[in-house]
Amino acid sequence: MDSLLANEPLIRLAVFAGVLALMAGLEALFPRRQRAAGRWLRWPNNLGVVVVDSLIVRILFPTAAVGIALAMEGRGVGLLPWLGMPQPLAILLAIVVLDFAIYLQHVMFHAVPLLWRLHRMHHADLDFDVTTGLRFHPVEIVLSMVIKLMVVVALGAPAVAVLIFEVLLNATAMFNHANLRLPGWLDRALRLVLVTPDMHRVHHSVVPRETNSNFGFNLAIWDRIFGTYRAQPAAGHDAMTIGIQQFRDPRELRLDRMLTQPLREDDRAYPLGRREGAS
Q: Which domain holds residue 171?
């Protein structure tokens, strides 16, 4: 465990690069949909967001969530140490609870109009592929980190559980955003446990009631429990439109336009609880 934590940056980078390369290769071999926008515009800008996000997080949170968990270990702080459960069970429970927290956070970023202004940058991509899973506004990333740190401290989550969760979350986000065609039987089996590309693609539909469904990033169970699961898009995966109505101009795919997007007017149709076409 100690060696795992000591090599945290290398582990993160290796998993990130490996999964990104794997998903990009599989997308090329087994594409699910014909692309609406070219890689040459989208990929450099989407990956540029990753660079900006990573720099800001390292500056504001030098030790990040794993560092906070390490600092708390042995002090008896949090729910899991208080329960005194065995380490393997504490690790598993921490991963599941952290995943549930991410689900709730995702719902919140759709439900609160001010937070939706930040999150909609993720949805404004005109296509859906592995790089879409990396495209989040820096302010959303900072707020997400604050929420995650609060959950880690409240749980007293083991540091190794936090590392495993963050690596899994990053990897599954790239997987379930991939433009990847899975055999129908495999998709049906996997989505009983994990969020698959076909399941999450519904969430990126231009139709608000579909955008406000399938909030899970890793485990698929939360959407089923809380009634936010939608099996398929109404138009079908091949005909559905990706993105949101407000930002259809390809210029909005540029990094500078993405970063300033929260400052622009909201059409009010998408936040959870609003009716389609509401003004």
A: 2-30+42-263
Is 36 part of a structural domain of the chain?
Answer: no
Is the pTM for the entire model greater than 0.85? yes
pLDDT digits (tens, 9 = 90+) for 172-184: 999 999 999 999 9
* Average pLDDT value for residue range 29-50: 92
Domain count, the chain: 1
Beta partners for residue 194, in sequence order: 219
Residue 126 burial class via C-beta count within 10 angstroms: exposed 0-12, middle 13-18, buried 19 and up: buried
In a domain, 269, yes or no: no
Determine, yes or no, domain membership for 253. yes
Residue 270 lies in a domain: no
Model confidence pLDDT, tens digit, residues 99-121: 999 999 999 999 999 999 999 99
pLDDT of 78 > 70? The answer is yes
pLDDT of residue 65: 85
